[in-house]
Specification:
Number of domains: 1
CATH topology: FAD/NAD(P)-binding domain
CATH class: Alpha Beta
Largest sheet: 6 strands, mixed
Low-confidence stretches: 456-463
Number of helices: 8
CATH superfamily: FAD/NAD(P)-binding domain
Number of strands: 17
Shape: globular
Helix content: 10-25%
């Protein structure tokens, strides 16, 4: 624990691992820490210990979708890797646009092996009928056709596990150490570093920052909390599912791109936008819904998932803070997730549901049934964001590189910095931001090393 690292990265999910990989490639001494265990490649994440990772919601229900393991949420994700369109970046107030994101997207897609699937002809016909644009699913594949996870990064096997970070120690506007509980022995310890990267997920990163006693410098942390609205349906068709073989990559998976608030002609009364993910048809037992039809007919039916993902914006009554009166088994105050919906978001929720039903009606065979199983006003899509949003405005907690304004040697690589979660799955854009944040950290450390050399002090690798 006496070593001083160049960078300590908190969180071994996709963004934390990508930042650490990038910095290690530059010869820097990097330590990645995670509160969870390290599963084997291909192993599903274990159920979290709710005594340790407890929370409560205020103003409505919220499902905090979590993975506590090296690899993070990529252990459960479907690999959807689509770029944010220019319209989404503009309306959400991103501090940079396509000119900056484009090269970053190119790098991430090449590094991860993002490939495009084959578009189902039925989807093409339905999209033409509805006058919407539909594209095949894009996702990163590795050897054997599996979807990429952060366990594939070079740093994942060496991550320090079972270390629950409590907060940052700091002086004169810079962090000096990360305090943590070693879950192996219950002891309080610390990691010291010249710089820190938080990639623990927006709610957990917020807890770490709020526990770091930033005072007035931490104003705004937790206040911009957003997540996707999700409207989900299952289309049941009295037609057997085709065999997956011969259907190409990601058979039956496609994205209906956002068709609202993309320009003057598509303007709505609400600010956000939404896309629709489609996946199917598959046998009913793949989804565990065999009992939706008589047992003797199961083989004659198939199912297609239809999900709309809607973009929300900061709301004064939607935020994350800490409940100082309730503590978990580790003695930490639990996160308190405040939920609220604006009138405009309720309008978007209604249109999301209408759009899903219209697509299902256009796609479905005669005799089909549509089952709703997630309402967009039930909060918690697993794409939370915005709790330490970035921007040129000095009132934003982070600058456009993800550097925390309260502590000059701390960066945030997770979705805390994103002004919104966008109008589609955000992972590819989040990884592009992580690459940009890593370059900012490297530039900071190089500058600091140069200054030390000029002052007659040694520079280079950490002690």
């Amino acid at each position: 624990m006496s070593r001083i690292w160049d960078t300590v990265v908190v969180g071994a999910g996709p963004t934390g691992c990508l930042v650490a990989d990038r910095l290690q490639q530059r010869g820097l001494g990097v330590l990645v820490v995670d509160a969870g265990r390290r599963p084997r490649v291909g192993e599903r994440a274990a159920e979290i210990d709710r005594r340790i990772w407890s929370y409560r919601s205020v103003g409505g229900s919220y499902d905090w979708y979590r993975v506590r393991a090296v690899g993070g949420r990529t252990l459960l994700w479907g690999g959807w890797s689509h770029r944010f369109p220019a319209a989404s970046l503009r309306r959400s107030g991103w501090p940079y646009g396509e000119d900056v994101l484009g090269p970053l997207y190119d790098e991430i897609e090449a590094d991860l092996g993002v490939v495009e699937g084959t578009l189902d002809a039925r989807y093409e016909r339905a999209a033409r009928t509805l006058d919407v644009r539909i594209v095949p699913k894009r996702a990163p594949l590795v050897e054997g056709g599996a979807v990429w996870t952060a366990l594939r990064t070079s740093v994942a096997p060496r991550a320090r596990t079972l270390a629950a970070v409590l907060g940052l120690e700091h002086e004169r506007g810079n962090a000096t150490a990360a305090r943590f509980i070693d879950l192996r022995d219950g002891m309080h310890k610390r990691f010291r570093a010249r710089s820190f990267v938080l990639a623990a997920s927006p709610i957990e990163t917020t807890r770490i920052l709020l526990q770091s006693e930033l005072g007035r410098a931490g104003k705004g942390i937790g206040r911009g909390f957003v997540d996707h609205m999700v409207a989900s349906y299952v289309l049941l068709e009295p037609v057997p599912a085709p065999p997956p073989g011969g259907r190409g990559r990601f058979p039956g998976a496609a994205l209906v791109e956002c068709f609202v608030n993309t320009g003057a002609r598509t303007r709505r009364s609400y600010r956000g936008g939404f896309s629709i993910e489609v996946a199917g048809p598959v046998p009913l037992d793949v989804l565990g819904i065999e009992r939706t039809v008589p047992a003797a007919e199961v083989e004659r039916w198939s199912a297609t998932l239809i999900h709309a993902l809607g973009e929300t914006f900061p709301h004064p009554r939607r935020f994350v803070d800490l409940d100082r009166e309730v503590r978990d088994v580790l003695g930490r105050p639990i996160p308190r997730i405040h939920v609220a919906w604006s009138r405009e978001e309720r309008r978007m929720a209604a249109e999301m549901k209408t759009a899903c039903v219209r697509f299902a009606d256009t796609l479905g065979a005669p005799g089909s049934r549509l089952i709703s199983f997630v309402d967009p006003l039930l909060a918690g899509a697993g794409h939370e964001a915005g709790t330490a949003s970035m921007g040129d405005d000095p009132n934003r907690p982070c600058d456009p590189w993800g550097r925390l304004r309260a502590l000059g040697n701390v960066w945030i690589a997770d979705a805390s910095v994103m002004p919104t979660a966008g109008d589609r799955h955000p992972t590819l854009t989040l990884l592009a931001h992580a690459r940009r944040a890593a370059d900012s950290v490297a530039a900071f450390l190089a500058c600091a090393a140069g200054a030390s050399t000029q002052q007659g002090q040694p520079s280079g690798s950490p002690r």
